[in-house]
Amino acid sequence: MADEQQQDRTEQATPKRREDARKKGDVPRSRELTMTGVMLCGSAAILLLSGPAARTIYGGFKEALRIDRAQIFDTRYMTEGLAVFAGKAIGSLLPLAVILLLAVFLSAMAIGGWSFSLQAAGFKFERMSPVKGIKRIFSASSAMELVKAMAKFLLIALIAIAWLWYSVDELLGLSREDIKVAIPHALDIAVLSLLVVSCGLIFIALADVPFQLWNYQKKIRMTRQEVRDEFKETEGRPEVKSRIRTLQQQIATRRMMEDVPDADVVITNPTHFSVALRYDEDRMGAPTVVAKGKGRIAARIREIAEEHDVPLFSAPPLARALYRSTDIGAEIPAGLYTAVAQVLAYVFQIDDWQAAGRRPEPPVPDIDEDAF
After folding, report:
1. What SS3 class is residue 312?
2. H-run or E-run covering 369
3. Tens digits of residue pLDDT in 262-277
4. pLDDT of residue 276
5. Is 237 in a helix, a strand, or coil?
6. C-alpha dist (Å) from residue 222 to 6, 11, 28
7. What are the helix (H) ranges across the chain?
8. Do residues 205 and 33 touch, judged by C-beta distance below 8 A?
C-alpha cells in the first residue's frame, strides 16, 4: 500500500509543502559535503596554523617544566602553572576550533540553508521501533550509503597509495635528518598528506549532492489528491481570499486607469464620482464606460484626464446615473443616450468654438436619476 502511494506521488511539491517540511527540519542535506568541507578546512588550517601553535605549546611546556628550588615547596605553583599553560594551549588551538566550527555550519547549510526545528530535535517513539529500524537497514537509502562507503574507501585508498608512492623518497629521507628537523618535517608531510587525501572527498561530494537533492525532491512529492486538498485549504482561508480580491481590484484599477487617456470625456460629480466615456461611431453601437470610480479613484481619474487633455464635464446627476447603471467596458443604457449625446456633441465642438472665439454655454443633461 505504501509503495502504491509512493508511486502516486507524481506532483511536484507546492511552496506550502516545502515550507511545512522546512518547519519540521526536513531539508536536503549531504553528509559527504559536510565531511568534505570539514576535512579540507581542517587540514588546510592545521597546515597553516600548526607552526605557530606548536611553538606556543612548546614554549608553554618549556616554561612550565622549568621549576626553581623555591617553587618546589610552593603548593600553589603547580596549579597556577598548569592554568597558565592550559590557557596558552587553548588560545593557540582556538583559531583551529573556530575554523572547524564554521566549516561544519557552512558546509551543512550549503544546499539546504539554515533550518532549526524543535520538531526535528524532539523525541519520536517510532524511532525506537525495531521493525522500522530493520526496514531502514534494508532500504534503498541504506544500500546507497553502503555503495558510497565502499566508493569512498576505494577512492581514498587509491589516492593514499598514489601519494605514498609519490612521497616515498621524502619519507625515507627523514631518517637522514637531525631529530629537531625531522620531527617538524614529518608533521608537515602528515598534514599535507591529510589535505591531499581530503581532496579526494570532493569527488564523492560532487556525486552525493545531486543525488541528495533529487532524493529530497522525490520524497516531498505529492499526490494529486494532496494538491487538491491543499488548494482547497489555502483558498478557503478568509485572509487568502481577501488578499486575492485585493490583488484583483488593484489589477483591474490599474488597467482601468490605462484606458482613461483614450476617453472622449470624463463626466464628474464633480468631486465624488468620475465616469470616463469613449465613443467610436464606426465600431460602437453606443458610448462605452472605460473607467469609473468614486472618492480617491475618482480623483485619480480626473488627474489622469487633465494630464492627457481629456475634457472634464461636470454633471452630477448624469455622473451618478452612469456610475450606478453601467459596468466598466459596457455600453450605456438607452435611457441615457440623449443626455450623453448632448455632452459628447458639446465636447466634440469645443475646439471649433474656441477657434471661432465663441464660448457657448454647456448643456444641462436632463435625466430621471431615480430610474437608475
Report:
1. strand
2. none
3. 888 999 987 789 999 9
4. 92
5. coil
6. 9, 5, 17
7. 2-7, 15-23, 31-64, 69-72, 75-108, 118-121, 130-137, 140-166, 168-173, 179-199, 201-219, 224-235, 238-259, 296-307, 316-325, 337-348, 350-355
8. yes
The pTM of the full predicted model, rounded to 2 decimals, is 0.48
Beta bridge pairs of residue 313: 267
Cα dist. 179→176, 284, 304 in Å?
A: 9, 104, 90
Side chain identity at residue 294, one-letter code = K
| Exposed e or buried b per residue across 316-340, where buried means at least 16 C-beta atoms within 10 angstroms of its C-beta | ebbbbbbbeebebeebbeeebeebb
Q: In terms of Cα–Cα distance, which of 306, 310, 272, 278 is closest to 291?
A: 278
Strands 273-278 and 265-268: antiparallel
CB 263 within 8 A of CB 278: yes
C-alpha dist (Å) from residue 213 to 61, 226, 342: 50, 22, 70
Amino acid in position 32: E
> pLDDT tens digits for 16-36?
777 777 777 777 888 888 888
